[in-house]
Design brief:
Blueprint lengths: L18 E11 L2 E10 L4 E8 L4 H13 L4 E3 L4 E4 L7 H5 L3 H22 L1
Parallel strand pairs: 1-4, 1-5
Antiparallel strand pairs: 1-2, 2-3
């Protein structure tokens, strides 16, 4: 029987990798909003972080998620992050493609403020 070549081990998510927020997905979960942030790094890695905000207001939910993500310490940027509702929340396929630019601005503003505060504390 022929031996198989050994498989290379998957590259673990390194704590030293710097991540950036690529997309933010919103979904209603009862009276709360669940926010899932899709993060990517320079090595092609993908990671999702989810948080359920203690509110039903989408603007407050994205601000809450931005504080959580920026506070992780190894997420460096959220520029050009797209905010969308998940497919379950969309009534048509076209709705799934629509970006919420007002929520994108809220997310980016809160992310940048929190990231600046984290960096000030590290100095």
């Amino acid at each position: 029987m022929a031996r198989r070549p050994p498989r290379s081990a998957p590259v673990p998510i390194r704590a030293t990798s710097m991540w950036r927020v690529d997309q933010v997905f919103l979904a209603r979960r009862g009276v709360r909003v669940e926010v899932t942030c899709s993060l990517v790094n320079d090595h092609g890695g993908l990671r999702n972080l989810s948080i359920t905000a203690p509110t039903d207001d989408p603007a407050q939910a994205v601000r809450h998620a931005a504080r959580f993500i920026a506070g992780k310490g190894n997420v460096s940027s959220a520029r050009q992050a797209r905010v969308r509702w998940t497919r379950e929340q969309a009534t048509t396929e076209q709705d799934a493609l629509i970006r919420d630019r007002a929520l994108e601005d809220d997310f980016l503003d809160e992310f940048e403020e929190t990231l600046a505060a984290v960096r000030d504390q590290q100095r």
